[in-house]
Amino acid sequence: MWPWILMALLVAWGAMGAWQRYKPLPDGVSRAFPERPAEAVRFLADESWFDATGERHLEQHIFDEVLDLIGQARRLVVLDMFLFNDFAGGSDGDGFRPLSTELSDALIAQKRRYPGLEAVVITDPLNTLYGGLELDHLQALRDAGIRVVITDLNRLRASNPLWSGGWHLGPRWLGNASEGGWLPNALGPGRVPLRSYLALLNFNANHRKTLVVDHGDRWAGLVTSANPHDASSLHGNVALRFEGAAALDLLASERPVAGWSGVRLAGPPAPDDENAPPGKARLQVLTEGAIRDALLAAIEASGEGDRLDIAVFYLAHREVIAALVAAKARGVALRVLLDPNRDAFGLEKGGIPNRPVARELHEAGIPVRWCASQGEQCHSKLLLRRPAGGGEAELILGSANFTRRNLDNLNLETSVRLVGTADAPALREAAAFFEERWSDSPERSTSVPFAAFDDATPWQRFRYRVMEATGLSTF
Hints:
Layout: H1 2-22, E1 36-37, E2 39-50, E3 56-59, H2 62-72, E4 76-81, H3 99-113, E5 118-123, H4 136-143, E6 147-150, H5 161-169, E7 183-184, E8 191-192, H6 194-200, E9 209-215, E10 218-224, E11 237-243, H7 245-259, E12 282-287, H8 289-300, E13 307-312, H9 318-329, E14 333-338, E15 343-344, E16 347-348, H10 354-363, E17 368-371, E18 381-386, E19 392-398, H11 404-407, E20 414-421, H12 425-438, E21 447-449, H13 458-470
Parallel strand pairs: 4-5, 5-6, 13-14, 14-17
Antiparallel strand pairs: 1-12, 2-3, 2-11, 4-9, 7-8, 9-10, 10-11, 12-20, 13-18, 15-16, 17-21, 18-19, 19-20
Helix pairs in contact: 1-5, 2-3, 3-4, 8-9
């Protein structure tokens, strides 16, 4: 009987893996919201650079704006953040900004000032090692009357179906507990059960980084690539802050995720009739696969002489790479700024996926540079398109890396798309940000030439392609 039992288990594993990979998406996922009037849009960036002596300098603005927005809210705060903890892993904590504490304290203080304020924090279960830890700051939020939603990732498609098929058949139903952990927490202090690592191997996430608040009699939103995670506080990141109907679209995008955990978000619905008039700057909220569609459309819309600049932490998506190579062949002026994928919270990474991808782009004639770093990450996710003839420029930024996991409806992701004349303030500031990061001088070192990390081997190229295709990776 054993061969038949084993065969039945393998068939069930494969069938469950296929179902989890291709099952219907939950309602409200992978949406391109309407193009709204771009109101009170501001581009924000966190940057690091090095002077002639090698000393690091920081310029940080994103979470200052987040704290300011929370500090003026009276009716509603909805915060959705992927990493929200003080874990440092193996990295040195000197110089880290205590973002998780600052943000928790700000939410609690505002709730005490205005007891009628509804505050909801949505985050990823990775912060609790999938139920294997209790975090003091999350409990403090609950004790203050702030609702904390740990995202139900079981609603998502499987990013790693080779593992998830078996996990959904067995370990998923064991649950988890924060008592009795015996394995080290790879991300920080404490011990966790084996079940935490069994859940981790699914490799999917609520990777969003968003904020919606009331702003007087209006609404304000913010979409970013930055996490309120202490060990991430030195990373380079970007954000857009905006108001109006687009902020209500952002709120609408969070309602399904909160609803999976039985939490109903207050606030008005997004208006049906407030579309941007022709010729005016406009803003569009994008989630999941709609981000991929917008990126590909922007690249494919680029023609000879147009400028296309990309700064991204992970670049691995095969369709995006093929579109970039094709754009170069059409005469588009491309520049790609990448993180060398060398550092991850005190651990040394192997350069995958960016180094083999950079070699592929370089061979196609696309200029590539690497962010200069000393342990921090070039964590931005940004594409900027500027037509040669002076037409409308286009900016896409947010949480989504340019990878299969981030763009193919496997993670939860949010980005925003801003379209307008190139001299619009936010677009002009985004262009200045890229120019500053791309340029380099002894007095202000921000990037290094492609040759500095041109060390991809055939084995790395093979590993990257297998990891991207199967989901057996963390990117």
